[in-house]
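Worked example 3. Consider a protein that binds aspartic acid.
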Amino acid sequence: MGEIRLHMFTSNINCSNNTPFLPQKDLLPAFYMNNSNAQPHRSRLNLAASAFFTTILAIILPIIVAGCAAQTGAVSAKPNPISTGLPAVPAAIAPQMGAGAAGSATNRAPQPQQIPAAPLGPRPKVLIIATGGTIAGAQEQPGTTGAYRAGSLTAEQIIASVPELPRYADVESEQFSNVASTAITPAQWIALSRRINKVLSERKDLAGVVVTHGTDRLEETAFFLYLTIRSDKPVVVVGAQHPATGLSPDGPINLLGAVRTAASTAAVGKGVMVVMDDRIISARETRKNYQRVGGFSGGDMGLLGVVASSGVEFFFAPVRKHGSQSEFDLAGVDSVLPRVELTFSYPGGTGVTFDTLPAAVVVATTGFTRAEGTSYQALRRKGVVVATAFPSGDNVTAVGGGEGGPPAGATSATSATSATGANGGRGGAGGAGATGTAAGTASGSAIDQPPLPPQVTVQHLTPQKARILMMVALTKTHDPRELQKIFLQY
Ligand code: ASP
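Given these inputs, the predicted complex is written out as structure tokens:
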């Protein structure tokens, strides 16, 4: 007869508070023989019963162990599949959150589990620069889906919520600001870009930089950095859709993915990226489609790669100018960028007028009305650069003039009449209407006019990103032909 001693199991599954979490007789009545002397820790089972018993234990043992871990905060010493080849996570890297900016007892982040200590070897160094946003958001009633205040937790508090970070990187942090991203201004873009350029040029030991940011303006800041960070080291911008102290915060997993990406040698030369929901997206293409988890995408251009449990995996690389190829040096730039307005074209639209003329206007349009054409042409005559971009940002207009050349419509500075139907024509990718119609319909008196400065056609950029490229490009030139070249390169 076989004999199984239950204490073999119970002794291994005692919780640290000594509460026996064991298969007691009342829990497992079927395990006991019809033996009035049967004791929980010393039971004789017949062979037939033992097979059944073993099967049942195989099922319940993991549940029991999980129960213990949940009670004590302990984590199994068994190797974690994702830690293979990587150092384990040290203890005491998960200090209490919720102190400081959000430190009231009712305003605390979920407590991360303590993970046993282990020596850590050399790991890539990553600097986390925190700017605020929902990823640093504190819920009025923690653990709920209710109202919260973005930009409440500090960089250290956000980092403390991700005990796994040290497994992948030696993390440092800086608090750049702590605001909702709607409060981020172009002046702050410049300051942030300067800071990152400085630290990447001075700190050869840094593998990369992560910027935590609100999601409302995340794609704009990321694209500005994409254009102006003149380094090939990875810079990753990350946010969250759920606040740090709310129900199911996504910030911790997003931050982990961002740090893993910034620490990855595979990310070198890929430009500024956004990591959300394990997706690695070029900052040039990133867009916030909706305010829910999974709301960030790269539109038609898709993802550069993914953060997988096995590692950071890239499938594509951006080929437009970025990083060390960028010509946009902010060193000599004032903290005020040239003013660029963003307008919409719509049925019945009549265009815009300004009391004080901006340097440029980006118009979100698929084609001007007659009146809009007249209005924007008048602005061009006054020296305002006019650029057109599809509202979707997904259009690639057939820009004329050959590779890298100016658009067909734009080259004809002599007369608006010649621009009718130009810039790719109706047979082109569909963006022609904006330029061609604008110029062509307003051409009546063009013969007596000085040459009309060409219009800039935007390829595959959202209007709000086209505005940012225009602001940056205007620090180099105000010539629409040169600006068009820049728009074809970045
Ligand atoms: N209002 C927040 C912000 O942009 C939204 C977010 O982070 O998701 O800062």
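Take a moment to read the result before moving on. The longest helix spans residues 47-72. DSSP finds twelve helices and 18 strands in the chain.
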